[in-house]
Each structure stands twice: as structure tokens, then as C-alpha cells.
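Batch manifest, entry 17 of 40.
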Amino acid sequence: NYLEEIKSLHQSLVALKINHYLYPHEDLGYWEKNTRAKPNFILKCLDKFPTLNLVYTDADSVFRRNPTLFENLNEDIAIFKAPQDSDYFTHDYLTSTIYFKNNQKSRELIVQWINEQHVGALQVDQDSFDIAVKKIPDLNIYNLPFSYVKVFDQAPNTEPVIEHFQSSRKQVKLKNHYRRWRNRILGLIFLIILLFIIAKIFN
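Output type: C-alpha cells
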């Protein structure tokens, strides 16, 4: 439930007088599946507002300053690309904030993004985006600065334009359930092996 986060996002948009469209998406059951709804929603927004370029941002973000960088972009998309020498980031791109020019090239990317979402239940939107973006030739990408995707407890010296609070840390994640069951099974196997060894010793 992101209701409180959405209220904070909405307040920040109103305070900065930024045009916006909020859509209450149904809960699909678990966090990984909810993330995979992202490209479908973005594509619907491009269709809904055909004369406008769009910026998508996650529901748990807050605008701290006016994102003026988006006003003069000519590229098809703008997104933060993780540094190659970083051990922190788990994906090549962060999909928490993305700019889309409302053109054919960005639509090709989004359709490909949707098509790549077939790996399995644990797949998240960033997995499929990393695959899709490599399959769109001549896609013009602008690399966003970290201030547009800044996480609240990272890089304290970076002044955020858009700040993200990663409420996903509190969400129900299928991979966590799998991990707990795996640990229980491994623990049970270890116990059985230990009991077997003890039985061998005393027999």
C-alpha cells in the first residue's frame, strides 16, 4: 500500500506546479509482479497524452526541485545509467525515473520492454528493461544525473531533484518467501544429515 507515499508525491508536484497524472493501479499480489505493470502503464500514458512528452517516476518519490533538465531534451529517453565500476547497483539502468519523448522510438522500446517480461515470477521491471534497451537500434539515450534518482539514504552530498524512498523494502516480495523456504529446506536437510551421522556413530 503506497497511499501515504502517493500523498507526499502529490503534494510535492502541486507545490512546484508540475503537471501530473496519478493512476491508482490494483495490487497484483506481490512486489515483483507489481513492478512489471510499469511499462504497460507508461504506454497507456503516451497514448492518453499523444502531444506530450512524459516523465515516469515511482510512487514513493518526491520532487524536491523543479526538474528543468527535462524541458530541453531532444533524446528519445532519459534515464540514469549505473557506473560500470560500481558494485552497488544491481542493474545497468534505474527505472525509478524515466523521461520519454512521445515518439515512435520510445514506443518501440516500451513494447520491447513488455515483451521481455516472460522470464518468471521473480523478474522485476529493471530486469526486462536492461534486456529490451539493447534490442532497440539507434535509440537516443540521455544519461540522467544521480540527483534525479537519488535514494534518501545514499550520497548525502548530492542535492536531490527527485528523491526516492524505496518503500519496496517494506513490500511483500516473492523472492523473500522463496529464500525463507529454501533456508528451511536446507536447515531440514542439514538436520537429517546430522541425525544420520549421529545414528551411524552410536550404532
